[in-house]
UniProtKB/TrEMBL annotation:
Its main location: membrane. The keyword Chaperone does not apply. The lineage of its organism: Bacteria, Bacillati, Actinomycetota, Actinomycetes, Streptosporangiales. Gene3D superfamilies: MFS general substrate transporter like domains. Keywords: Cell membrane, Membrane, Transmembrane, Transmembrane helix, Transport. It is a multi-pass membrane protein. It is found in: Cell membrane. GO terms for cellular component: plasma membrane. Residues 1-379 form the Major facilitator superfamily (MFS) profile domain. This is MFS transporter. Pfam families: MFS_1.
Length: 391
C-alpha cells in the first residue's frame, strides 16, 4: 500500500496537480505521518482491550477506499484525504502485526521476528515501487499504478479475516512467567512518559525512530523530484525508489537475527550514522549510479536500525504494558514522517532540495551520537555476557 505511492505521488503532485511549492506537495506525507502516528498509539491500547485481530481487520477496512480515491482524485485535497485513511490503515495493521509477532516470539528471538516482519513489509514496498514506476512509464500516472494497491487492500482484508488467529493469550501467558513487579501497575500516562522521556533505552529508541522516519519522509517526498530535475526517466526513478526499501527489507533478514547475538545498541548507533553518510552522498550526487549506491546504503543503515529498535522495546517492557509501549514508540517513530515532510519541505522551498538533505543528514548523525551516549544494551543475553566479562 505504501509502495504504490513512493514513485508516483511526487510526480503526480508536480505534473498533474501542478504544485510548485515543495511544502504544499508534501502535505500528503504530513497527513499520513500524523494520522499513522496517532493510529499507532491507539492500536496498542485497543489491541490490549479488544484483542489483536479485531484491530487488524478494522485497519484493512479503513484502507479499502484509498486506491480508488487516488485514481479518481479531482483535486490534491482528495490525495491528502486518501493519505489520512492510509495512515490509519498502516498504523492499525502494521502496529498489530508487530505486537502479534512479539506475542509469539520468545525473548531470545525477538530480533529475528522483527526482522522477518519488517523485511516482509519493505521488500513488498520495494517491489511495488518498482512495478508502479514501470506501470506509470508505460500507462501513465493514473490509474494503472493504483490498481495494484486495490488488489493489496482486498488481499489484506481477506487474509486478516480468514487466516490470522488471535495472539493476545500468548502475552497473558508470558506475563505470568515474567517477574517485574512494577510492570502491571503502570498507567497509560506513566507508560507514555517512560517510553518517551525518562527510561534511557526506551527514550533513545523513540528519538532514533522519529529521526529515521524523518529522513524517510524526505526520501519519499523529495528524492523523485530531485531525480526528475536531473533528467532521469520515470522508469529510472521507479528503480531508485525501490532500492531504499529493497535494501531496507532484505537487510533486516540478517540484522534482526544478528541483534539477538550481538546486542541492539551497536546496530542502532551504527545504522543511524550510516544513514547520515548515505544522505550526504545523495546530496553530493548528480547521476543515477551515485544515487543508486547512496540509496542502497541508506536502506542498509535503516535495516540495521528498524528491527532492533522494536526488539529493544520488547526487551525492556513487561508483557502487560508492552503493546502500549510499542504504540507510544510508533507514535514517535511515524510522527517522523510528518516532521521530515514539514522540515524538508520548508527548507527546500527556502534554500533548495540539496540543503534540505544536508540538514536531515546532520540530524540523523546527531541522533546516532545521542543513542551512543544515552542508551544501554537491552538484550538479556548480551547484558549477561557483559556482566560475566567484567572483572
Amino acid at each position: 500500500m505504501l509502495g504504490q505511492e513512493r514513485a508516483v505521488l511526487p510526480l503526480l503532485a508536480e505534473q498533474t496537480f501542478h504544485l510548485t511549492a515543495y511544502t504544499a506537495s508534501l502535505t500528503y506525507i504530513l497527513a499520513f505521518g500524523i494520522t499513522k502516528a496517532a493510529a499507532n498509539y491507539f492500536a496498542g491500547t485497543w489491541s490490549d482491550r479488544y484483542g489483536r485481530k479485531p484491530v487488524l481487520v478494522a485497519g484493512w477496512l479503513v484502507g479499502l477506499p484509498v486506491p480508488l480515491m487516488l485514481i479518481f482524485a479531482p483535486s490534491w485535497s482528495w490525495v491528502v484525504a486518501a493519505n489520512v485513511l492510509l495512515g490509519i490503515n498502516q498504523g492499525l495493521t502494521w502496529s498489530v502485526t508487530v505486537i502479534m509477532k512479539i506475542d509469539l516470539a520468545g525473548p531470545q528471538r525477538r530480533g529475528l521476528a522483527m526482522g522477518l516482519n519488517e523485511a516482509a513489509g519493505y521488500l513488498a514496498v520495494a517491489a511495488t515501487a518498482m512495478a508502479t514506476g514501470y506501470l506509470a512509464a508505460g500507462h501513465g500516472l493514473r490509474p494503472a499504478p493504483f490498481l495494484v494497491g486495490a488488489a493489496y487492500a482486498a488481499l489484506g482484508l481477506g487474509l486478516s479475516l480468514m487466516v490470522v488467529r488471535e495472539t493476545r493469550g500468548h502475552a497473558h501467558h508470558e506475563a505470568t512467567t515474567t517477574a517485574q513487579p512494577t510492570g502491571p501497575t503502570l498507567t497509560s500516562r506513566q507508560i507514555f512518559t517512560r517510553t518517551s522521556f525518562t527510561e534511557p533505552a526506551l527514550s533513545s529508541v523513540s528519538q532514533a525512530g522519529l529521526v529515521n522516519n524523518a529522513n524517510d519522509g524526505l526520501a519519499w517526498g523529495l528524492f523523485p523530484i530531485l531525480f526528475a530535475a536531473h533528467g532521469l526517466t520515470i522508469g529510472q526513478i521507479g528503480v531508485l525508489a525501490s532500492l531504499l526499501p529493497a535494501a531496507w527489507g532484505a537487510g533486516q533478514l540478517a540484522t534482526g537475527a544478528a541483534s539477538d547475538w550481538y546486542g541492539r545498541k551497536p546496530f542502532i548507533v551504527a545504522g543511524m550514522l550510516l544513514q547520515a553518510a548515505a544522505l550526504a552522498l545523495t546530496a553530493l550526487g548528480t547521476t543515477f549510479w551515485i544515487w543508486a549506491i547512496a540509496l542502497s546504503l541508506l536502506g542498509a543503515g535503516t535495516a540495521m536500525v528498524y528491527p532492533t529498535l522494536l526488539a529493544a522495546i520488547g526487551d525492556v517492557t513487561h508483557p502487560t504494558w508492552r503493546a502500549r509501549s510499542v504504540g507510544v514508540y510508533r507514535l514517535w517513530r511515524d510522527g517522523g514522517f510528518a516532521v521530515g515532510a514539514l522540515l524538508s519541505g520548508v527548507i527546500a522551498d527556502l534554500y533548495g532540495i540539496t540543503t534540505a538533505i544536508w540538514v536531515v543528514a546532520a540530524l540523523t548523525a546527531a541522533s546516532g551520537l545521542l543513542a551512543a551516549m544515552r542508551m544501554y544494551e537491552t538484550h538479556p543475553r548480551t547484558r549477561t555476557h557483559s556482566r560475566r566479562s567484567t572483572p
